[in-house]
Each structure stands twice: as C-alpha cells, then as structure tokens.
Amino acid sequence: MSRFRHAVKDRDQHIMTLRIACCVLVFFLLITCAGWMLAPNKLTVHNPPDLRTGSTRPWWEVPASSVYSFAFYIFQQLNAWPKNGEVDYPAKIHALSAYLTPGCQDYLNTEAQKRSNAGELTDRVRVVYEIPGRGYQSKSVSVISRDNWVVRLDLVADEYFHAEPVKRALVRYPLKVVRWEGDAERNPFGLALDCYDGVPQRLEAALPTEIPAKSGVFQ
C-alpha cells in the first residue's frame, strides 16, 4: 500500500508542477501579446538616396541627405506663389502647417502680415530653386543632436509683379530642422521646419553663367 500511496503522491506533484509551468507560460504569453499590441503599427525608416553599396543604420537615425531634401522641399513650397503672394503665401503656411513647428508657423504668419501691410505681396509671384552646382553636399547639413539639424540652402529667388520680373537674388538660407512626431497621418516625414537659424546671407551679386539672365531682372 505504501508504494501505491507514493505513486499517487508523485503523480499529484507532477500534475501540480505541470500546472505551474502552464501558468508561467500563459503569463509570458500575455506579456508577449500586450507588447505586440502596444508596438507601433508604422515605422518610418530613412534611407539615403544611393543604395548601391547598401546601408545599415539604426532605424531612428535620419540621414543628413534626407534632412536636406525635406528642408528644401518644404521651403520651396512655402515660397511658391503662383498668382498673388498676398493670398498664396498665407495659404501655403496653412497648408504646410503640419511640417512647421508652432513657433515657426507664428513667425511666418507675422512676417506675411507685415509684408502684406507694406504692400510687398500684392500681385507678387515668387519661385525659389537651387543654384546649379550647389545642391546637397556634406557641409550642407550640420548635425546638432539626434533630433536637431541646421540646413544651409543656396537658392535663387525670382520674383515677378504680374508678368514683369522685378527681383532675382542668390541667397543662403540657414534653416533649423527638428524631429517632429506629432501627426504621422499629415506629416509622414517625422520632421518639421523651425524657421531660420540666423539671418539669410546674400551670395554673389552677379549671376553665374549656369543661370541664364532674364531681361528686366534686378539684382
């Protein structure tokens, strides 16, 4: 009888051990499910434009070339006034608000109001584009920290009053770019312009040979 009692006891202990093991497995399964549910369903990975040699980088790192492309695209859109700067400029600020920090948006709205009051935007058409040969270079972007950059854009700014060209300027714009994870639906880049890092600098007074001069354009 003693042998049978020990066998029953051993069986009960084994069953208890299996139950404890099952409870532990269920506990870890619940933790795994919770982690899976809380994991982000979208992940933005920035890749450099030339992948012929491959690229290995942490997913949170934003390449300098991507920061430059973002800054140039948004800044160019802000300065694209196809018909009337008095209407187009505030409209562009509003349309691109997801790509601007709140402070930068306030600054641009104030600037637009001041220029409008001074009569600098009425019937003004404006376009900016890169100076040929002065696109992205290694020195075009300064990395301040993992989430902050300073981008230097060398651009040509052309302005017209109705159909008459009235201004052409070659300017270096120092722009601040920050990581901005506010609204991934409206801003998939995860970046935002924080306006200027200093006063824009006028470059050469004379037009380079690569840029065809237009009659009636003033420097």
UniProtKB/TrEMBL annotation:
Residue ranges crossing the lipid bilayer per the database entry: 20-39
InterPro entries, alphabetized: DUF2895
Keywords: Membrane, Transmembrane, Transmembrane helix
The organism's place on the tree of life at top rank: Bacteria
NCBIfam families assigned: conj_TIGR03746 (TIGR03746)
Protein name: TIGR03746 family integrating conjugative element protein
Taxonomic source organism: Rosenbergiella australiborealis
